[in-house]
């Protein structure tokens, strides 16, 4: 698939809570497809200097607006993209499905092993807390932080996706690495595109 140009362009939209393995899977998928990876956290990390003068929610939404604009430009150029974001609100999915000329595919990262998920999240949080710089300053650092975040969503992350193709992957399965997840996703995309033609 890496040597083929996807037609129409595909927007691979990652979905899942923080620490669920989205970024690792997204990197592997983007490498397998040889397409740009757009990470919402890359944009959000750059807003640290504005945090004291703007509302956190506004900066988060600005991060999404920038991400959607960059994705739109890539699709206009005929490129497929992988978007690494939680896709936590239906409005985020709606923004992607409105991109003209693109097929949107959701890759939902669902960690089957909650303890492994917790371990990974807290390991990442400890790295940020111990001088990991500005990157990730806005992400939950502990399991309790994640639980508060999920409660704050008030169930909005569990929304109906309609007819958008979706594949769910277990990112904590010890027998499946990121490259195997990427291969599974690429196969799913190929199958979906073949059925649509």
Automatic annotation (TrEMBL):
SUPFAM superfamilies xrefs: P-loop containing nucleoside triphosphate hydrolases
Name of one Pfam family that matches: AAA_33
Entry superkingdom: Eukaryota
Name listed for the protein in its UniProt record: AAA+ ATPase domain-containing protein
Gene source species: Setaria italica
Organism classification: Eukaryota, Viridiplantae, Streptophyta, Embryophyta, Tracheophyta
